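User: I'm new to structure prediction. If I give you an amino acid sequence, what do you actually give back? Let's try with this one:
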Amino acid sequence: MAEPDTDDARTPRARLLVAAGVAFEALLVAAGAVASALTSATGAAQDRVGAVFLAATALALAAGLGAVALGVRRGLRWARTPTLVWQALQVLVAFTTLPRAVGIPLAVLGIAVGYGVLRRDVVAA
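Assistant: Good question. You get back a string of structure tokens that encode the predicted 3D arrangement of the chain. For your 125 residues, that looks like this:
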């Protein structure tokens, strides 16, 4: 069995793009966590405990997505499943919950990353 690719000179461009997409999604989730924490801290939240819990959960999710992005970047096989699950959830939420101006770009990103992670040169088989 071949070792996953870690050399920057040999890393396929598609793998870098997919990893960057997942990392960008992790940053967006972390930004949502910060926004929730600020809402709680300024007293604008109706339920402060709920807002703090939401922020903590979103930070944990962002950290998990960051780990998945590193796994994709390194071509590790385990990263395929959580990437696909996240993309499916993101597309579902983007189409059903978010305003179109935000939802459509997130859905397109989710579809592109979901397709990309299935490519043979992105995640070692």
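You can read the tokens as a compact description of the fold. Here is one thing that stands out. Residues 13-117 form one domain.
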